[in-house]
């Protein structure tokens, strides 16, 4: 299904997967800085090239055009010690069910306790809009420093939790 040359994001440790088709471009530098600081990898998955400088730990994976192709790539490659950044509630729900950590663009961490409610709200809004019960969604509001700070705080917290979790799991395995 994934045919292009650069569809592999070789994982050597912890990785942040970004559903880059929908994630705010203003957050890219922040994500990269945080990943490099902690020696994590980043894998930006999208169906078009984005202005990201590939290096050993920062990858731009271009998936074929098509509905949810970046989602499929991420779902296939993310593991329990990785973090996925996405605005897609359906992808978040799928990943949370497999114990993968998911954060949205506003820094909200999705987990087993809140994903069903988020999915319900999403489905209700979608169907109410389709039936004409509510007006179309408003234009996207500005993505500013407040949102970046919330994302940074959640990402930092989740990176710490996963690193501790892996160290603990390795200790138990010995």
Kindly describe this structure.
The chain has 174 residues and is of the alpha/beta class. Helix content is 43%, strand content 14%. The chain has 5 helices and 6 strands. The chain has helices at residues 28-38, 69-77, 89-97, 115-130, 145-173, and strands spanning 15-19, 41-46, 58-62, 83-85, 101-103, 109-110. The chain has a 6-stranded mixed sheet with strand order 3-2-1-4-5-6, with helices on both faces. β5 and β6 (109-110) form a beta hairpin. α1 (28-38) packs parallel to α5 (145-173). The termini are far apart.
How far from one another are the termini?
Answer: 39 Å
Radius of gyration: 17 Å
Total DSSP helices: 5
Q: What sort of overall outline do the alpha carbons produce when their principal axes are compared? A: globular
Strand element count: 6
Structural class estimated from helices and strands: alpha/beta
Mean pLDDT: 83
Low-confidence stretches: 1-7
Strand order of the largest sheet: 3-2-1-4-5-6
Strand content: 5-15%
Helix-strand layout with pairing:
Elements: E1 15-19, H1 28-38, E2 41-46, E3 58-62, H2 69-77, E4 83-85, H3 89-97, E5 101-103, E6 109-110, H4 115-130, H5 145-173
Parallel strand pairs: 1-2, 1-4, 2-3, 4-5
Antiparallel strand pairs: 5-6
Q: Which terms would index this structure?
A:
disordered N terminus, 174 residues, single chain, 6-stranded mixed beta sheet, 14% strand, 43% helix, alpha/beta
């Amino acid at each position: 299904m994934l045919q292009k040359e650069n569809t592999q994001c070789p994982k050597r440790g912890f990785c942040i997967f970004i559903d880059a088709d929908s994630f705010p471009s203003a957050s890219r530098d922040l994500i990269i800085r945080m990943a490099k600081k902690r020696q994590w990898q980043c894998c930006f998955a999208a169906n078009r090239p984005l202005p990201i400088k590939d290096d050993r730990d920062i990858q731009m994976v271009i998936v074929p055009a098509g509905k949810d192709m970046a989602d499929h790539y991420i779902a296939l490659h993310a593991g329990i010690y990785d973090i996925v950044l996405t605005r897609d509630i359906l992808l978040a729900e799928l990943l949370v069910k497999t114990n993968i950590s998911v954060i949205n663009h506003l820094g909200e961490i999705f987990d087993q306790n809140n994903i069903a409610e988020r999915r319900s709200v999403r489905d209700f809004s979608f169907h109410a809009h389709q039936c004409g019960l509510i007006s179309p969604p408003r234009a996207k509001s500005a993505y500013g420093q407040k949102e970046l700070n919330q994302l940074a705080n959640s990402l930092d917290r989740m990176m710490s939790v996963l690193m501790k979790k892996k160290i603990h799991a390795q200790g138990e395995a010995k």
